[in-house]
Description:
Blueprint: E1 3-7, E2 10-12, E3 18-25, E4 29-39, E5 46-52, E6 58-59, E7 67-72, E8 77-82, E9 91-101, E10 106-111, E11 115-119
Parallel strand pairs: 2-11
Antiparallel strand pairs: 1-3, 3-8, 4-5, 4-9, 5-6, 7-8, 9-10, 9-11
Amino acid sequence: QVQLVESGGGLVQPGGSLRLSCAASGSRFSITSMDWYRQVPGKQRELVAGMPSGGSTTYGDSVKGRFTGSRDNAKNTVTLQMNSLKPEDTAVYYCHINYIDMRTSRRLEVWGQGTLVTVSS
Protein backbone atom coordinates (compact mmCIF):
# COMPACT_ATOMS: atom_id res chain seq x y z
CA GLN A 1 0.00 0.00 0.00
CA VAL A 2 1.03 3.59 -0.55
CA GLN A 3 1.74 5.39 2.71
CA LEU A 4 2.41 9.02 3.61
CA VAL A 5 4.64 10.20 6.46
CA GLU A 6 4.46 13.83 7.60
CA SER A 7 6.92 15.78 9.71
CA GLY A 8 7.79 19.35 10.72
CA GLY A 9 4.89 20.46 12.89
CA GLY A 10 5.38 22.28 16.17
CA LEU A 11 5.02 25.53 18.09
CA VAL A 12 6.07 28.83 16.53
CA GLN A 13 5.58 32.51 17.42
CA PRO A 14 3.48 34.84 15.26
CA GLY A 15 5.56 36.12 12.35
CA GLY A 16 7.78 33.06 12.42
CA SER A 17 8.33 30.32 9.87
CA LEU A 18 7.93 26.58 9.72
CA ARG A 19 8.42 23.92 7.06
CA LEU A 20 6.40 20.75 6.71
CA SER A 21 7.39 17.73 4.65
CA CYS A 22 5.59 14.66 3.37
CA ALA A 23 7.05 11.53 1.80
CA ALA A 24 5.14 8.89 -0.15
CA SER A 25 6.35 5.30 -0.11
CA GLY A 26 5.25 2.19 -1.97
CA SER A 27 5.68 0.63 -5.38
CA ARG A 28 4.09 0.68 -8.80
CA PHE A 29 2.13 3.89 -8.40
CA SER A 30 2.00 7.17 -10.28
CA ILE A 31 1.08 10.37 -8.41
CA THR A 32 -1.30 12.72 -10.18
CA SER A 33 -1.59 15.32 -7.40
CA MET A 34 0.16 16.10 -4.11
CA ASP A 35 -1.68 18.48 -1.80
CA TRP A 36 -1.78 20.09 1.64
CA TYR A 37 -4.96 20.59 3.65
CA ARG A 38 -5.59 21.88 7.15
CA GLN A 39 -8.39 21.56 9.67
CA VAL A 40 -9.40 23.31 12.88
CA PRO A 41 -11.74 21.48 15.28
CA GLY A 42 -15.33 22.37 14.46
CA LYS A 43 -14.48 23.69 11.01
CA GLN A 44 -14.37 22.18 7.54
CA ARG A 45 -11.08 20.91 6.17
CA GLU A 46 -9.68 23.43 3.68
CA LEU A 47 -7.19 23.28 0.83
CA VAL A 48 -3.87 24.98 1.54
CA ALA A 49 -1.90 24.07 -1.58
CA GLY A 50 -2.81 21.86 -4.51
CA MET A 51 -0.03 20.62 -6.79
CA PRO A 52 -1.33 18.61 -9.74
CA SER A 53 1.20 16.82 -11.94
CA GLY A 54 1.81 18.90 -15.05
CA GLY A 55 -0.28 21.79 -13.75
CA SER A 56 0.01 24.98 -11.72
CA THR A 57 -0.03 25.08 -7.94
CA THR A 58 -3.20 26.45 -6.37
CA TYR A 59 -3.20 28.15 -2.96
CA GLY A 60 -5.99 28.93 -0.57
CA ASP A 61 -6.82 32.63 -0.35
CA SER A 62 -5.82 32.87 3.31
CA VAL A 63 -2.24 31.67 2.66
CA LYS A 64 -1.39 33.28 -0.69
CA GLY A 65 1.88 35.17 -0.55
CA ARG A 66 2.91 33.52 2.73
CA PHE A 67 3.01 29.78 2.02
CA THR A 68 4.93 28.03 -0.75
CA GLY A 69 4.46 24.42 -1.79
CA SER A 70 7.16 22.51 -3.63
CA ARG A 71 7.48 19.02 -5.03
CA ASP A 72 10.27 16.59 -5.79
CA ASN A 73 8.81 14.13 -8.28
CA ALA A 74 11.87 11.85 -8.29
CA LYS A 75 11.63 11.32 -4.53
CA ASN A 76 7.83 11.48 -4.26
CA THR A 77 8.03 14.17 -1.61
CA VAL A 78 6.26 17.48 -1.07
CA THR A 79 7.06 20.36 1.27
CA LEU A 80 5.16 23.37 2.58
CA GLN A 81 7.19 26.44 3.53
CA MET A 82 5.12 28.63 5.86
CA ASN A 83 6.23 32.22 6.47
CA SER A 84 4.71 35.17 8.35
CA LEU A 85 2.63 32.78 10.41
CA LYS A 86 -0.49 34.04 12.16
CA PRO A 87 -2.44 32.60 15.11
CA GLU A 88 -5.27 31.75 12.72
CA ASP A 89 -2.89 29.38 10.90
CA THR A 90 -3.06 27.07 13.91
CA ALA A 91 -4.46 23.76 12.68
CA VAL A 92 -3.71 20.14 11.96
CA TYR A 93 -2.08 19.97 8.55
CA TYR A 94 -2.61 16.94 6.32
CA CYS A 95 -0.71 15.73 3.29
CA HIS A 96 -2.84 14.16 0.57
CA ILE A 97 -2.13 12.46 -2.74
CA ASN A 98 -4.18 11.28 -5.68
CA TYR A 99 -2.47 8.47 -7.53
CA ILE A 100 -2.86 5.64 -10.04
CA ASP A 101 -2.14 2.08 -9.01
CA MET A 102 -0.11 0.83 -11.99
CA ARG A 103 -1.08 -2.79 -11.35
CA THR A 104 -4.80 -2.13 -11.71
CA SER A 105 -4.94 1.32 -13.36
CA ARG A 106 -7.30 2.41 -10.60
CA ARG A 107 -7.33 5.98 -9.34
CA LEU A 108 -6.94 6.15 -5.56
CA GLU A 109 -6.17 8.60 -2.79
CA VAL A 110 -4.45 8.50 0.59
CA TRP A 111 -4.07 10.88 3.55
CA GLY A 112 -1.16 11.45 5.87
CA GLN A 113 -1.54 11.13 9.64
CA GLY A 114 -1.62 14.89 10.19
CA THR A 115 0.81 17.17 12.02
CA LEU A 116 -0.16 19.93 14.47
CA VAL A 117 1.01 23.49 13.86
CA THR A 118 0.45 25.94 16.73
CA VAL A 119 1.12 29.66 16.26
CA SER A 120 1.13 31.43 19.62
CA SER A 121 3.15 33.82 21.74
